[in-house]
Design goal:
390 residues, alpha/beta, TIM Barrel, eight-stranded parallel beta sheet, two-stranded antiparallel ribbon, globular
């Protein structure tokens, strides 16, 4: 890991944008755009970032802060920093160590990792890699029987809770994926791959590691009875056939018998419905701008959700987090913690586990520096008095 850490050390990498540039240079265009892109015109993707520019800080000056307390608790789990690693589908395509590397880096940083259903590694292997809390993100791909099997495995492996994603009635129209030939490159037809192969051949380092890792593997956590693990190319159709409805939450609650987080909430009405269905937390999320384009940025929606739940459950937020200052702004507006997806995925692409660790280090350092400049000794003391909307 030390050899790869040099790739992402300062001054070569000083922020998340630098990791993004390294990811672009290492990954084929089809894989980079899968990580980087959004739905349709990518309006929401851009709005998730620009919303942070509408919040300015109100610092307290001439305050000496010998120690900044960055700790928080999410669903009873102690975290050293208020940033969890969000589920990123099939991270194994980004880097051969994929979900295992990201989970290990999260644990070493003292925070939590959320494993996607669409994972390239078995959930037991991912959980064993971390010394910290690990959550399982649930899709109903393959139906209830398949999901029940995954939930039982997650419970036996010691997962801290499940994250139920509710904004994927169908897959969003991610136009970059179509232009880059994602379906053809993942499919079995050699003829279909030819047109799109130059972008892959242009990244021989990635291609060699991808092939040595076995290429496109099936999904080990979506095991269909009588058929085995679901092929990765079936994900889009499987999502369309497995929409999660509010009524499913009662069944999921009975099967899981543990903490449930609802991810994809964008209205106060849905936040209150999540409470009624037994959720312990919600994630204010628009899927990183990858599902319905044209919805509001999550930072703008956050105050409505915080007001709607009125302290009854915890509120998390994702979307557009690239700096520690972004985390502070979300916490000022009422989030308990944030989820980071692209920020660490760029690091994973750049240098595997070392890149994820560097992304977390950057965010943590940014966060502490921002608190000190605000004159605030603890994230627990953050609130609206430390920021102002333009």
């Amino acid at each position: 890991m030390a050899r790869y850490a040099a790739r992402v050390a300062s001054p070569r990498v000083v922020n998340i944008a630098d990791l993004r540039n390294l990811a672009r240079r290492r990954l084929p265009r089809v894989v980079f755009d899968y990580v980087d892109g959004g739905a349709e015109d990518e309006i929401t993707l851009g709005e998730n970032r620009s919303a942070f520019e509408e919040i300015t800080f109100r610092p307290r000056q001439a305050i000496a802060i010998p120690h900044c307390d960055l700790r928080t608790r999410v669903l009873g789990c102690d975290l050293s920093v208020p940033a969890l690693l969000a589920p990123v589908g099939y991270s194994r395509v980004i880097h051969p160590d994929g979900e295992v590397a990201a989970c290990r880096a999260a644990g070493q940083a003292g925070t939590a990792y959320i494993l996607s259903t669409i994972s390239g590694y078995a959930l037991e292997e991912v959980k064993a890699a971390s010394t910290g809390p690990v959550f399982y993100q649930l899709y109903l791909m393959g139906g209830r029987e398949v999901a029940e099997g995954a939930l039982e495995r997650a419970r036996n492996a010691g997962f801290a809770g499940i994250v139920v994603t509710v904004d994927t009635a169908v897959a969003g129209m991610r136009e970059r994926d179509f232009r880059n030939g994602m379906k053809e490159l993942l499919g079995p037809s050699l003829i279909g791959k030819i047109r799109f192969s130059p972008q892959v051949l242009a990244r021989p380092g990635w291609l060699a590691s991808f092939l040595l890792d076995g290429g496109v593997r099936p999904l080990p956590n979506v095991v269909v009875p009588g058929r085995g693990p679901m092929p990765l190319i079936d994900v889009g159709s499987a999502l369309a056939q497995s929409t999660i409805c509010w009524e499913d939450l009662r069944w999921i609650h009975d099967v899981w018998r543990g903490p449930i987080i609802i991810k994809g909430v964008l209205t106060g009405e849905d936040a209150r419905r999540a409470i009624d269905e037994g959720a312990r937390a919600v994630v204010v999320s628009n899927h990183g701008g990858r599902q319905l384009d044209g919805v509001q940025a999550t930072l703008r929606v956050l105050p409505e959700i915080v007001s709607a739940v009125n302290g009854q459950i915890e509120v998390l937020m994702d979307g557009g987090i690239r700096r520690g200052a972004d985390i502070v702004k979300a916490l000022c507006l009422g989030a308990r913690a944030v989820l980071c997806g692209r920020a660490y995925a760029y690091g994973l692409a750049a240098a595997g586990e070392a890149g994820v660790a560097r992304a977390l280090e950057i965010l943590r350092t940014d966060l502490e520096r921002t608190l000190r400049l605000l004159g605030c000794p603890s994230i627990a003391e953050l609130g609206r008095s430390y920021c102002q909307c333009l």
